[in-house]
Amino acid sequence: QAAQALKSIARSEHIKSYLQQSEELYPLVLQAAKRFITGESRQDGITVAKEMIRKGYAVSLEYIGENIKGAGECHEAKEEFLQLIEEMGAASINQTVSLDLSHIGLLVDTEITYTHLVELAEKAKSYNITVMVSMEESSKTDDILDIYKRAVRHYSNVGISIQAHLYRSVQDLHELMNYPGKIRIVKGAYQEPCNVAIPRSKELNDRYLQLVEQVMEANHPLSIATHDESLIQQIEQRHCLARSHVEVEMLYGIRPDLLKNAKDNGYTARMYLTYGQEWYLYLCHRLAEYPENLYLALTDMIGP
Ligand code: FDA
Q1: Nearest alpha carbon to residue 200 among 233, 231, 236
Q2: Three-state secondary-structure class, residue 37
Q3: Is 283 in the pocket of ligand 1 (CB under 6 A)?
Q4: For the residues 45-63, what does the mean pLDDT come to?
Q5: 286 lines ligand 1 (CB under 6 A)
Q6: Is 177 flagged in the annotation as binding?
Q7: Is 139 helix (H, G, I), strand (E, B) or coil?
Q8: Which domain holds residue 184?
Q9: How many domains does the chain have?
Q10: How far is Cα 60 from Cα 71, in angstroms, rounded to an integer?
């Protein structure tokens, strides 16, 4: 319930515009958000990316945004991603860009989305950069998979995220392994009906392991994207993770100790970095999935 409330708050335009207009509150909440985001500008993202690479991490960079309904805004978002790829290339950050298709057109038109994705993949390819497509609510899964499959046929530098909590993911994954793109396995961040998805449970963890196993056995490029320590330990017990096609990936600011361990053990440890003006939504997602973070956020805002 707390999670649902926080997600509703995140989507409330009223609260968002109040926050943006409040000269006192805005910097305080931004301060709290900086535990999870690099900052508001592309430069913030690039600066932290360079620092993390210097420390031995791989990185993914996302310009935050989702569910954009205007064609003009989707075009602008695509342009921002192009610029990001350009600047990453110029700085020799030949790593990963991550995005939600609903940020670049999915709610407007699937053809526009496909064209935008291909444009990004083309630019990224010239810098040896991977474009990872995120997975969104189950109502969008078919469209996201269709667009991904069309794009990856031409651009093997495009990858896809799969949510272990969706029942359909077993079948989807089976099919996705026929394509060359990297597969990122996540538990799933969205509230879904119980006939569609498995809630957080041992059953979900077993499903996560099963999917990882499937990809590992096929030697397919894989990102194990979780902060679940016991899951990572179980995967480590069964498989050697120090392989070039396998990586452990975590969100910036969440369990940095665990990601450092992965790095120190010789695994590819990828840190998922975000930037952008829409950090408020991203912050609410991180609070919603782990309400204990509310305490941290308040401490960041008002001091211990
Ligand atoms: P789980 O939620 O069970 O948490 C396990 C443990 O991790 C917790 O006990 C806690 O210790 C720690 N933890 C988890 N979340 C935390 C938080 N916010 N703050 C502090 N500690 C926390 N989802 C999606 O639906 N589509 C997508 O495309 C992506 N993409 C994506 C990329 C990457 C790189 C990551 C790491 C995650 C995603 N996600 C995602 C989010 C994912 O689905 C999931 O919601 C979060 O990773 C949290 O789930 P865990 O696997 O960490 O397990």
Answers
A1: 231
A2: coil
A3: no
A4: 98
A5: yes
A6: no
A7: helix
A8: 38-275
A9: 1
A10: 26
